[in-house]
Amino acid sequence: MANSYEPYLLEVKRALSSALCLYDLPCEHVERYSRPEVEFDDSPGLMLPPIAICRNEREKCLIERSVNSVRFSIQVKQDNALEVLVLRLPSMLVNTKSLHLDAHEASDKA
């Protein structure tokens, strides 16, 4: 069973490796300000084509890219209550961490 996931996971890894080659790009609308272009639709020239990788209808990922940011969405199968619980805990942790992250503090460290 583990071997059936290998091509899918390798493709996701390859796509993420190429998508995470980012650089700092100042905002075209506000001087001395850098913002994640993937979150805004006002500069379509800075957006790169999204990458969708599907193993089946219940297991897929979407990578939305721009020149200075990436949004990664993943859908994983949840057949029983244990899988739902195992997937809910890490996603709650990531969401909690992202809500408490100060954007200015994070960009100053980069």
TrEMBL record:
Its main location: cytoplasm. Transmembrane segments: none annotated. GO terms for biological process: actin filament polymerization; Arp2/3 complex-mediated actin nucleation. It is found in: Cytoplasm, Cytoskeleton. Keywords: Actin-binding, Cytoplasm, Cytoskeleton. One of its GO terms (molecular function) is actin filament binding. This is Uncharacterized protein. It comes from Symbiochloris irregularis.
